[in-house]
Structure formats: C-alpha cells, structure tokens
Amino acid sequence: MTASFVTINGFSTAYRFDGPDTGRVVVLSNSLMSNYDMWDWTVPALSDRYRVLRYDTRGHGRSSTPAGPYSVDLLAQDLSALLDALKISKAHIVGLSMGGMIAQQMGAKFPHQVLSLGLCDTASEMPPRNMWAERIEIATEQGISGLVDGTIKRWFTPEFIARAPEDIEKVRKFILGTKAEGYIACASGIRDMAQTTMLLKIHAPTLVMTGRQDPACTVEQSIVLNRMIEGSQMVVLENAAHLSNIEQPHAFNQHLRKFIDSVDDQL
Q1: pTM over the 0.90 mark
Q2: What is the pLDDT of residues 223-254, one digit of tens each?
Q3: Residues contacting residue 220 through CB under 8 Å, at least 6 positions apart
Q4: Which residues of 222-233 are buried (b: 16+ CB within 10 A; e: fewer)?
C-alpha cells in the first residue's frame, strides 16, 4: 500500500492505515533515522483488531523536511495535529526511541488525545551533548552514510546482525533514506531534551518496554520512566538491543498487544 499525505503545521506528512476502519486507533511513531517501515514487524500483531496508524516524523521517510532545528515538543505538536487532521479523537500511542519521546510529550501535554502510552526503548533525557555534536558533525560532513554502520551496531546485538542479514539490509535502507537535514534537525531536539519532571503529568495507562542490551536508551533510563509515571508497567526484553520490535518481534508484540488489549477492554 502506498503512503497517503496530509499537510499539517505547514509541511507534508506521510501516513498509512492498516486494520479495520471500525477499530480503535493505535498510532506507531518511528525512531530517529527510520520511517514507518520500521513497524512492519509490529503491525500484523495489531491490525486484526485495531486501526493502526503509522506516519513518518518530519524530516524522515516520505514526509517533507522543513527547516530545523526541531524540538521534541514540536514533533508532538505535529502528531497532535495529525490526529486532528485525520479526525481521530483519541488513540493508543506507541513510540520507539524518538517516537517514545514524542509519546511522552503527548501523554503530558495532549492527554485528551491519549488512551494509553507504549514507551519503547526510549528515555526522558539523552546526554551527553558532545556525543550528539559528534554525530551531527558526521552527518553534516559525510551525510547519513557516515553514521549507518555505527547505528546498526547500536540498534542490534552482534548475534542478530549475524543471523538476520535480510532484516539488517531493510534497516540499512531506511537509515540511508533519511535526509541528513532531517536527522540533524531531530537530533538537535533530542540533544536538548529534558522532560523527566514532565513525566509526573502523565496519567494515562503506560507500558515501558526496553531491550536488555539497549546501549542507546538503557534499562536504567527506562527505570526512570517507570518510576516517574504513576502506575506504569515495565517489561525488559531479553536478547534485544535498541530496535527491540525488530530483534525480538514475538516477545515485543506479545507484551504490547496484551497491554493495549487490557486498556482497550476497559473502554
């Protein structure tokens, strides 16, 4: 299925739906340096019951790239506006990495649009600043190709890289499909993000899920989310690094579906 497009906040956003028109909506928000294809491993586990909406964050995939830098707050305003444009009053919001940072903002600032939150392999702060300065410099001088190998090593365990070359190649393509300008604009927002105290404002049912071996958004950072968000649940997936939905799709999907069903059944 090809992407659909809608103009929100002055730029073109790519999105697609899967699943029944009558189902409640689950939104899937992508990581930095990916696009909505990263959810190909997840959608089949949800789309029998739910109307699954995935979209490309500004500066990524098929969406356009307005001038940066972007803040995470701005990226959440985009998602809120996308829901309004598509006439979706409330949704289950699931985000991984950058998508999870956006989901935190949604829970705190747009609670009227949120049924539940799935915060996957994410964090409320992403120090140190010099790490981001180095990556932005590489992207500026070499383009995204200068970051791709290091990114794949952070995103997956060595065992998965060795055993799943087709999955890795698919991931490599969506990394390389990211515009350097979009990466830099979003990375600047992640570098400057400080939203730990904001988590106290989140009252929606929340699942925090992360890979045990995630070096980018660590288990310790997920523990912060879990402790700061009242009533949240936490799951640690074994033998998974940063893109745990791709490395351990069965376990990821099982926990996510169980959580969303448990909330949805009460509505």
Answers
A1: yes
A2: 999 999 999 999 999 999 999 999 999 999 99
A3: none
A4: bebbbebbeebe
Classify 235 as helix, strand or coil.
strand
Sheet containing strand 91-96, strands side by side: 4-8, 11-18, 51-55, 25-29, 91-96, 114-120, 206-211, 233-237
In this structure, are strands 51-55 and 11-18 parallel, antiparallel, or unpaired? Answer: antiparallel
Residue with tokens 């500026």: 140
Please state the domain extents for the chain.
4-264
In the chain, the DSSP E strands lie at 4-8, 11-18, 25-29, 51-55, 91-96, 114-120, 206-211, 233-237
Residue among 14, 13, 11 at smallest CA distance from 1:
14
pLDDT score recorded for residue 26 = 98
The dihedral region occupied by 129, where left means phi > 0, alpha psi between -120 and 50, and beta the remainder, is: alpha
Look up the CATH architecture of domain 4-264: 3-Layer(aba) Sandwich (3.40)
